[in-house]
Design goal:
globular, 242 residues, 2 strands, mainly alpha
Length: 242
């Protein structure tokens, strides 16, 4: 169930990235983009393969070949050719791989280990908002996300540290509180970076939200941007450091 849910969300997010590409005059094949994201998501969820030699490697190699062939079939060269090709490669790696990684965490480590990341990023986001509203003075990235402040970011990092130290020993087997604190800061930092990255994509496309799928909250990407960058870091920690 979790794998299918991740695949569904990956398909929706892929359609939104393809939509952003359309806004900059480089439309890509929506069925190809969605299929690539869903296939990579499922392959990652079922194998957890982040290195060459595993079942995911042939899928990624096929992705490179497929993106080239689809771009070639799109017509003569134009100003958007490179962007179309890059988008077809980016979509499954940006949304499919991280969402598949999160589903893999649930399959292998269980619901509480996945909940650690979900809760930590959510609380960090809330702390950023609250601290930013209360103490925010210096803009964090004014040209990308004018509402974000350095004070808010520091609040989010502090919340990540506290929550990581508190929850990690109970929710991640074999993890000490100090490891949890460091992990919490790192995940919160990558979550902030993911939020800014998605904001940059939207600003480049000249839109406020990735879509209007969720009334009042934008699209799937707007809700998941922090998880798309923090998730792979979390998986690397679980596989090689936990």
């Amino acid at each position: 169930g979790v794998v299918l849910l991740a695949a569904l969300v990956a398909g929706l997010a892929a359609s939104e990235v393809a939509g952003l590409a359309r806004f900059v005059g480089a439309p890509v094949s929506l069925p190809v983009a969605i299929t690539a994201a869903v296939v990579v998501c499922i392959a990652m969820a079922l194998t957890g393969d982040l290195v060459s030699g595993g079942p995911l490697a042939p899928v990624l190699l096929a992705l490179v070949v497929g993106a080239g062939l689809v771009t070639l079939a799109a017509g003569p060269p134009s100003a958007g050719t490179l962007t179309r090709a890059a988008t077809l490669l980016m979509v499954p790696l940006y949304v499919g791989l991280p969402l598949g990684a999160l589903a893999w965490v649930h399959v292998v480590y269980g619901v509480w280990t996945l909940a650690f990341l979900l809760v930590l990023i959510s609380v960090s986001d809330t702390a950023q908002y609250v601290c930013g509203r209360a103490f925010g003075r210096v803009k964090l990235a004014p040209t990308i996300s004018p509402a974000k402040t350095r004070e808010g970011a520091l609040g989010g990092l502090a919340a990540g540290a506290v929550l990581g130290a508190t929850l990690a020993p109970a929710w991640i087997a074999g993890t000490l509180w100090i490891e949890g604190a460091v992990l919490g800061v790192v995940l919160a930092a990558f979550g902030i970076a993911g939020d800014l990255f998605e904001s940059m994509l939207k600003r480049g496309a000249g839109v406020k939200d990735s879509s209007s799928l969720i009334p009042g909250h934008g699209g799937v990407l707007d809700r998941l941007d922090a998880y798309l960058t923090a998730g792979p870091v979390y998986v690397l920690f679980l596989r090689y450091l936990a």
